[in-house]
Specification:
There is one protein chain. By secondary structure, this protein is an alpha/beta fold. Helix content is 38%, strand content 15%. It has two domains: 290 residues, Crotonobetainyl-coa:carnitine coa-transferase, domain 1 (Rossmann fold), CATH 3.40.50; 90 residues, formyl-coa transferase, domain 3. The protein has a six-stranded parallel sheet, with helices on both faces. The protein has a three-stranded antiparallel sheet with strand order 9-10-11, with helices on one face. Helix 7 crosses helix 8. The two termini are 31 Å apart. 35% of the residues are buried.
């Protein structure tokens, strides 16, 4: 639901961004007259902060939902101040909008409401009466103090889809604990299989981004869409219980099943694959490349490019199971060969015969990549302080209802006047608190 003023700003921004996009490969937002998103007509009340909940809300906004971000007056989402870096205006001055905040709040409208006050609680309940989905990531039991928990709001609106995101879920002995991504990466077992095998060369490592938050946000988005489909068929709302620990344990995938099948605890293998060889990084004369040989035919081609075709017929290395068993013999041989040439020379030669490989890019190289540009993974949107804000697009591609890019991450309370005048008018819901 885009107001006329927002539509005008979007159109103007799209026209300005089109010139930049022609040179950079950036997508310049949804053009006027574009098809509505798959979730157009769905209103989401987003009470979450930081990353997992906002990531879910942004995903739903990209799919066309109207997402109302409820923030604390004065300070707003914690991530607004998680900088530097901050978005800069045309004069190169900091706007106060942290890049971290910008990553997870595209497409939303911001209102400021103090949930600790009776007035704020009444305003939330009026917004709930006009919403389809509520997302929250407060600690277990915290919203019950305000009468804003699922059990309370279900009485008011049985069709409400209420999505709770916490570190440890709504049940179990740890449900009262706060959940932080770094801790979850450790507790889940993820860090036990991530990092160099030799502790002297680094030991266990966390991922470079908060993956438990990001994965949980995506799972939450899927849960919300599933619940909307269920409600369409039955009229029933429900409580969605997402936990960062649950998600990270589930996402260990084949390592989980390997452990359950054998009882053997997997360890760290660094950049190497536990079950495929060679499938790792290799040093070259001027840096590193990644080689991902997935079958015996590719290994034969790999050896031919290296000028050592005999390795592929060696009984120790002819099949993947043998290469895994004899990893400690094979890998040093390959390293001694690959170090002799520059990485681009190896990549060109290997790509020419269909052996999967690639460079290890930094983000400057990522956004200059023609494939990344062709896929529209950079999105430029009009911003009231900066003129234009550069963001990363949604990776979902849909032929009939593509992602909607209509609003930049909102300023704190940017939509108070618009929304509070419209949505907070007294409704049929009788406030008795």
């Amino acid at each position: 639901m885009t107001e006329p003023a927002d539509q005008a700003a979007t159109q103007a921004g799209a026209q300005t961004g089109a010139q930049t996009g022609a040179q950079t490969g950036a997508h310049t937002g949804s053009l006027p007259g574009a098809l509505p998103g798959a979730l157009t007509g769905v209103r989401v009340l987003d009470l979450s902060r930081v990353l997992a909940g906002p990531w879910c809300g942004q995903l739903l906004a990209d799919m066309g939902a109207e997402v109302i971000k409820v923030e604390r007056p004065g300070t707003g989402d914690d991530t607004r101040s998680w900088g530097p870096p901050f978005l800069k205006d045309a004069a190169g001055q900091d706007t106060g909008e942290a890049a971290y905040y910008l990553a997870a709040n595209r497409g939303k409208k911001s209102v400021t409401i103090d949930l600790s006050t009776r007035q704020g609680q009444a305003e939330i309940r009026r917004l709930v009466a006009r919403s389809d989905v509520l997302i929250e990531n407060y600690k277990f039991g915290q919203l019950a103090k305000y009468g804003l928990d699922y059990a309370s709001l279900k009485v008011q609106k049985p069709s409400l889809i209420y999505c709770s995101i916490t570190g440890f879920g709504q049940t179990g002995p740890w449900r009262h604990r706060a959940g932080y991504d770094f801790i979850i990466q450790a507790l889940s077992g993820f860090m036990s299989v991530t990092g160099e095998k030799d502790a002297a060369h680094g030991g266990p490592q966390k991922a470079g981004v908060a993956i438990s938050d990001l994965f949980t946000g995506v799972y939450a988005g899927l849960a919300v869409v599933s619940a909307l489909y269920h409600r369409q068929r039955t009229g029933e709302g429900q409580h969605l219980d997402l936990a960062l620990l649950d998600v990270m344990v589930a996402n260990l995938a084949n390592l989980n099943t390997s452990y359950l099948a054998t009882g053997r605890v997997p360890g760290r293998t660094g950049n190497a694959h536990a079950n495929i060889v060679p499938y790792q990084t290799f040093p070259c004369r001027d840096g590193h490349i990644v080689v991902a040989v997935g079958n015996d035919g590719q290994f034969q081609k790999f050896c031919e490019v290296l000028g050592h075709a005999g390795l592929a017929s060696d009984a120790r290395f002819a099949t993947n199971p043998e290469r895994v068993r004899n990893r400690e013999e094979l890998v040093p041989l390959l390293e001694a060969i690959l170090i002799q040439r520059e990485k681009r020379a190896w990549i060109d030669a290997l790509e020419a015969v269909g052996v999967p490989c690639g460079p290890i890019n930094n983000l400057d190289e990522v956004f200059a990549n023609p494939q990344v540009q062709a896929r529209g993974l950079r999105v430029d949107l009009p911003h009231p302080l900066a003129g234009t804000v550069k963001l990363v697009g949604n990776p979902i591609k849909m032929s009939g209802t593509p992602p909607v890019y209509a609003l930049a991450p909102p300023l704190l309370g940017q939509h108070n006047e618009e929304l509070l005048e419209d949505l907070l008018k007294p409704s049929q819901y009788d406030e008795r608190r």
